[in-house]
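Quick start: read one record
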Amino acid sequence: MLLHRPVELLGMLLAGLLVPLKQAAKVEGVLERRVAVVGSSVLLLGPLNITHIHSVQWEHLNGTTFHTILQYERHNLTVHVPYAARVHLHASNGSLLLEDLRESDRGIYRVTVNQEERASLMILLDVLKPVSHPQLWSSGLVAKASGEVLCEVAEGRADTFTWKKDGQRLPPDRSYRLSESISVLYLRMAKKSDCGSYSCNASNGISWQETSLNITVAGLSPPLQDVLRISVVAVVFAAVSGWGIIFPVCQSEKLRIRGELWRWLSAYTCGLVCISSILTGTAGLLWMREEGPSIAVILPEIFLLYVIVITFLVASTVAFQPTKLTQLKSTTAQRTLGYAAPGGVLLVVLTSSFHMKNIHQRHVVFSFFLV
């Protein structure tokens, strides 16, 4: 329908454009910004270039419309009910004294002096409560896990939150605002260097408060905890298989185990060595994934792989095809098969001890730092 009435359509478009222009004009008229404390008084000055004042009108912008506070004309003063007993007018210069400020008093104030001259001034007033001491708390931080430190202000509006660690200011991108009163500091992949004293500074236009909290990173990361558990199990398996190797050697010739019992004991021993080697190799891979590769871990991993292959072949051959071992003529091969299990036990014990020692040292370092 409007397409057939281009004049009306153009008029509607122009009316829509005038609305933001009117709002912009109001904002542009703000010449002064004042900040005051809740419960205090503030003096809003009138225009300075007026010598003779005949009439004064003060208004408060509430939402999108101005509401009259008071009107003064030829010695007649009218104060509107919401502001009765809280405002005083200085008729000589048009200034307004507003007492017992409330947070609802914030906004834009407009004073118009001498209606015929239309001399006006606009003031932006912000009424704030002093911020209270921030409350800091954090989730339990564990090494290599993410965590957060929260800073909350119970009273007052905090315009700015500033985070510091050991007195050094942290980049703004390390934190984010959850609300007007809560700021969150994010710690990604917590580590030893994240331990220390964190402070949160909350401020607004009239006050600031700062609170500190000592943050600690406790315990071991979940992968290192798995390395510790696996290493302990691997040592237990290696100790049991070591008993299977030493026991027959310590027996006298008459009591020495032979025949089927020896065959199954050998298969059992080599199988345990193979399992303990697999566990130790897995612990090494987890260690390198967490701490990075190193030659001290890579070399044992290579030898463990060798032990896994040999002990698996020996255990399966002894269990299912024992005649093949008796047909083995090579002295080198016999020695390789004979030394694989004892060497594997020794390698598992040494490698697992290395892992457990390093984990213990890291735990001690963390504990020392926290103390």
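The two ends are 80 Å apart (CA to CA).
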